[in-house]
Design a protein that fits this description.
The protein is an alpha+beta fold. The protein has helices at residues 8-30, 33-52, 60-79, 99-108, 111-114, 119-130, 135-142, 146-165, 177-191, 195-199, 218-230, 282-287; strands at residues 202-210, 214-217, 236-242, 245-252, 258-268, 271-277, 290-292. It has two domains: 3-165, Butyryl-CoA Dehydrogenase, subunit A, domain 3; 177-292, Nuclear Transport Factor 2, Chain: A. A seven-stranded mixed beta sheet has the order 2-1-6-5-4-3-7.
């Protein structure tokens, strides 16, 4: 696609098509499907802003991955300010590994496994083995040299092999009693379709996001969200965890009760002040570590 044809409409269409792939990268870099969506949203805003500011775009897909990569790096730096930074020794010569087995291993690895890698290793493994970029395209996205990219890829692959052989017994996180009480009340009222009572639980200044669809501000706007649920029957809510966070799981009773989405709620006392509904972000559901408490 030439720069002359790459107008805003083309960029917006490409962002829609690439969003699942951008999320796969961002979620694995952050170790969280939820934080991955935050990174993607930041990258989308930056890409549209750069385009509107007259940025020259020669290879749009690589350009978008570079923006997502930089957004992920910024996110990690913010998160790690109070953590010990990981270090990585230099390797100057390395032999490329066969990609087929490595690709299967990386695709199956959990987000927790990727967090055991250094950021450089994470980037290299995700871009090459999960998303299928070449080494040279990966260098273009990350800005690293070919030697450094090969070294990070080799070490990351080796670490994932080690982690894959280790037991994955992770205990269920503990749920705060007050948080459990609030969530169970919300779930019970929602499942009973008592949406007037559910609306009574949300704050006047509620911020509600249906991820990948819309944002609603204030109680009046947010009330339409509940009406949309009242018109369909392909859902039932239950309690669980998503990436270690207390969450409401959206199950589909018409498809073997499979989890089709999840909802995260921030509270101020007993009032919901922020709701994020991931029902229409299937790419987040695919990447998330979802663990049920009920059922």
């Amino acid at each position: 696609m030439s720069t002359a044809k790459f107008d805003r409409a083309a960029l917006e269409a490409m962002l829609v098509d690439l969003r699942p792939k951008l999320h796969r990268y961002a979620a694995r870099m952050a170790g969280s499907a939820v934080e991955g969506e935050d990174i993607v949203q930041e990258a989308v805003v930056k890409a549209l802003g750069a385009h509107d500011g007259g940025a020259t775009v020669e290879r749009p897909e690589q350009w978008l991955f570079r923006i997502a990569h930089n957004a992920a790096q910024d996110h990690l730096r913010r998160r790690q300010r109070e953590r010990l930074r990981m270090t990585e020794a230099d390797m100057t010569e390395i032999e490329d590994l066969s990609a087929s087995a490595e690709t299967r291993l990386a695709a199956a690895a959990s987000l927790r496994s990727f967090m055991q890698l250094t950021p450089a290793q994470r980037s290299a493994v995700i871009l090459v083995d999960v998303l299928g970029l070449s080494l040279y395209e990966t260098c273009e996205v990350t800005g690293a040299t070919l030697a450094a990219t090969k070294a990070a890829l080799h070490r990351g692959r080796a670490e994932l092999k080690t982690l894959a052989a280790a037991p994955d017994d992770v205990p269920l996180p503990k749920l705060d009693p007050d948080e459990e009480r609030r969530l169970r009340r919300y779930i019970d009222l929602f499942n009973a379709r008592d949406f007037d009572a559910v609306r009574a639980l949300i704050a006047q200044d509620i911020e509600l996001e249906v991820v990948n669809r819309t944002r609603l501000s204030g109680k009046k706007q947010a009330s339409t969200y509940f009406g949309n649920y009242d018109r369909v029957s392909d859902w039932a809510l239950s309690l669980g965890f998503v990436d270690g966070q207390p969450a409401i799981l959206i199950r589909n009773p018409q498809a073997d009760d499979a989890v089709r989405g999840f909802v995260l709620i921030d509270w101020r006392g007993d009032e919901a002040v922020r709701i994020r509904d991931f029902r229409y972000a299937s790419y987040c559901v695919a990447d998330a570590d979802i663990r049920a408490i009920d059922g």
